[in-house]
Specification:
mainly beta; single chain; 1 helix
Length: 108
């Protein structure tokens, strides 16, 4: 790596936090993708136009899909997830992803 290029660190820069709402209804199977997903507020900035499917919206959707079985969604209601941006280095490439920071459930 060139000496003038500093390695980006998640600890040394601002981190995105995103509020995501998952809506579920009776008779639907969330593990089969039968739920609604809304992005609420966020702290930071979201990249919504990156090529190759690595924009923040796709990464947020990946995080939700990967964690649906563990979230224990209500039969009917809204579950709010607070997602936190994270990532790791692989050689010179930064692989960004989102992890669940908090889960807030609200049944109807």
């Amino acid at each position: 790596m060139h000496p003038s290029i500093q390695k980006q660190s998640i600890e040394s820069r601002s981190v995105n936090y995103v509020s995501v709402y998952i809506g579920t209804e009776s008779g639907c199977n969330p593990e089969e993708g039968e739920y609604t997903l809304h992005i609420g507020g966020f702290i930071g900035s979201l990249d919504i136009g990156a090529p190759s499917g690595v924009d923040d919206v796709s990464l947020i959707q990946d995080c939700v899909e990967d964690n649906i079985p563990e979230i224990e969604l209500p039969i009917e209601g809204v579950t709010e997830l607070i997602l936190k941006e994270s990532g790791e280095w692989e050689d010179v490439f930064w692989h960004k992803y989102y992890v669940i920071d908090r889960v807030i459930k609200e049944s109807f």
